[in-house]
Design brief:
The complex is a heterodimer of chains A (241) and B (358). Chain A is of the alpha/beta class and 241 residues long. In chain A, 37% of the residues lie in helices and 24% in strands. In chain A, a hairpin with a 2-residue loop joins β1 and β2. In chain A, α3 packs across α4, α3 packs parallel to α5 and α4 crosses α5. The longest helix of chain A has 17 residues. Chain A is globular, with a radius of gyration of 18 Å. Chain B has a domain of 219 residues. Chain B contains 17 helices and 4 strands. In chain B, the strands form 2 sheets. In chain B, strands 1-4 form a two-stranded antiparallel ribbon. In chain B, 72% of the residues lie in helices and 3% in strands. The chains are: A alpha/beta (241), B mainly alpha (358).
């Protein structure tokens, strides 16, 4: 079976700065791929290149065997790949339900059908009792869950989560971890997760890619990554390695 | 934590009281000319309709899609000029002119959309102003087509007949009243339809966050252009209606920047991004501007005996208060914007919500 996502030698330059240089890896359907690296390693830039916000300066992204080069984010979403935002972007003046409906309308033109899909996704993230709240008034934990519900409502095959646990307390993080594992169990959605919480990423990932200074430093199972001296050096410096 | 229901979701059914009241208002509007003969009263009503059409039309691109166009005079002028030019030089009845005006406005909107929607926020606002100014200067200088600064005057509107039957000869304001009312109701209906459709959801998503909307599968340029096209079509209709009703147009009255600003104000005062905001805004602004223009304030001061009409102060007030109507109007608008950031409608809602809680 063809990999669901194939990243081939992707580079992204901003002027003279290489935010990503020559990054390659592939993802199989159904897996969870962890993407880690120190601040400024180019994780979010890579997300932006994959989902069409930036065209890669070099290289190619293939989704289900199809090249995404030159496609706008909305086309990418319609093909079945959706991302969440590190800095959450709720549609602040709309209700929670309407936020998720906007996602659901990607696959239907009927408001009634969209409302049903949206309520279903709100149940998945355990927020159905918040449906009528104004999205802009939610606390951070629920905003993060809303991002996930809205993304899921577009019925993606590949979900890219950009630091969904950032800024959450341990209980809220645990809820997100359970949510990510439940999505995996559902079997239809493949996930790529950017996360700084090492314990969490080790628990949920099937494979992990490590980026530093825009380059891929290592790739492997969580065990291989923790025992990789290069990775330890990148995070903690030479002294510990 | 407040549990405010989203403005998008109406409760499933409308209460019988509300529907009865709506029907009563509608009936009153249709019967109004049978009871009121004063041409001035009819004139004010027609201005109200015109303002409502302009406001509702702008609201679709400005209020729902959040793209603050301050160049809607371009579409207003496109409708007005197309209708008048066709009527004057080709003797084409204004009813066809209105449709031709819509087509011209749609073409203008597509061009403006293609250029300006690459820009966001204040840059879009500036570009929209620039395009309208280009249209105004073009109308000033293309003298063979537009008659330049002299404008176009029409003395009579051709008799409207279907077959041999004369429907109306347009000698009174009554036919204009009904045409204005019909177009105004149509624009309100159009806004309702937009709000209760996928388009409405997508436009509001674009207003709230363009990048997030884009990531959820919304093609920004298609949806923004659609909203602008709908908005332009109704604004052009307003322009055609204005031209036929007043019978005279020139660049300062239909293509100037203050027309664009006026259109935006209707929505800001009433409440942006709501169906009834532009109606409320018109109900506030039209009477206000008429009262100031006819120097009502000076009249009230004289009536109240605060100053005599013949005294020095009286003469001063009579001379200058009428000229200051733009100033007073401006100050009032600033006050409303400062103290009611969500418009009059939002302010009333907040008040009633406050009462409900207290």
């Amino acid at each position: 079976m063809a990999p669901i996502l194939e990243i081939r030698n992707v580079s992204k330059f901003f002027g003279g700065l290489a935010a990503n240089s020559d990054v390659s890896f592939t993802m199989e359907a159904g897996m969870i791929m962890g993407l880690i690296g120190p601040n400024g390693a180019g994780k979010t830039t890579l997300f932006n290149c994959i989902t069409g916000y930036y065209p890669p300066s070099r290289g190619e992204v293939l989704f289900k065997g199809q090249s995404l080069n030159g496609l706008e984010p909305d086309k990418v979403c319609r093909l079945g790949m959706v991302r969440t935002w590190q800095k959450v972007r709720p549609l602040a003046k709309l209700s929670v339900l309407d936020n998720v409906m906007v996602g659901a309308l990607c696959r239907t033109s009927s408001l009634k059908v969209a409302r049903e899909i949206a309520m279903e996704q709100l149940r998945v993230v355990n927020m159905e009792n918040k449906a009528s709240f104004v999205a802009g008034g939610l606390p951070i934990g629920e905003r993060k869950k809303l991002e996930v519900a809205r993304a899921l409502a577009t019925q993606p095959e590949l979900l890219l989560l950009d630091e969904v646990m950032g800024g959450l307390n341990p209980a809220e993080s645990e809820e997100i971890i359970q949510l990510i594992l439940a999505i995996k169990k559902g079997g239809t959605v493949t996930q790529m997760v950017i996360e700084h919480d090492m314990k969490a990423i080790m628990r949920i990932s099937d494979r992990i890619v490590v980026l530093t200074s825009g380059e891929k430093l290592a790739e492997g199972t969580p065990e291989e990554i923790v025992n990789n001296p290069e990775v330890v050096r990148a995070y903690l410096g030479d002294f510990h390695a | 934590m407040k549990t405010i229901l989203s403005p998008l979701k109406n409760p499933a059914g409308v209460s019988p009281v509300t529907s009865a009241m709506a029907l009563a208002v509608l009936a009153a509007l249709f019967l109004f000319p049978s009871f009121v003969e004063s041409p001035y009263a009819l004139h004010i009503m027609i201005l109200l309709f015109l303002s409502t059409i302009q406001g509702e039309a702008w609201n679709i691109i400005g209020g729902y899609a959040g793209q603050y166009s301050v160049g809607h005079a371009a579409y207003f002028g496109a409708g007005a000029y197309t209708t008048m030019i066709l009527m004057q030089s080709r003797q084409i009845p204004p009813w066809y002119g209105m449709i031709a005006g819509i087509i011209v406005a749609l073409i203008v909107s597509l061009i403006i959309g293609a250029i300006c929607f690459r820009l966001r926020g204040p840059y879009f606002v500036l570009a929209s102003i620039a395009v309208a100014e280009i249209m105004r200067l073009a109308a000033m200088n293309l003298k063979e087509l537009t008659n330049g600064a002299e404008g176009i005057l029409t003395t009579e509107v051709p008799v409207f007949r279907i077959g041999e039957t004369v429907i109306t000869d347009f000698l009174t304001k009554v036919p204009f009243y009904y045409i204005g009312l019909t177009i105004a109701l149509l624009t309100i209906l159009a806004t309702w339809l937009v709000q209760h459709s996928k388009l409405g959801y997508y436009l509001q998503a674009i207003r709230e966050d363009q990048d997030a909307a884009n990531s959820l599968g919304i093609n920004l340029s298609i949806y923004k252009s659609t909203a602008l096209a709908i908005s332009a079509a109704f604004t052009s209709l307003a322009g055609s209606f204005y031209a036929i009703y007043i019978g005279f147009i020139d660049p300062p009255t239909v293509l100037a920047l203050d027309i664009s600003v006026q259109i935006v104000l209707i929505c800001i005062i009433g409440g942006i991004g709501t169906i009834w905001g532009p109606v409320v805004g018109s109900l506030v602004l039209v009477p206000l501007s008429e009262a100031l223009r006819s120097n009502l304030i000076a009249q009230v001061i004289f009536k109240a005996g605060l100053a005599s009409e013949e005294s020095g102060t009286g003469i001063f007030l009579k001379e200058h208060l009428a000229h200051a109507h733009a100033l007073i109007y401006g100050i009032l608008v600033v006050v409303v914007i400062l103290f009611m950031p969500d418009g009059v409608l939002g302010w009333v809602k907040k008040l009633s919500a406050g009462k409900g809680r207290g």
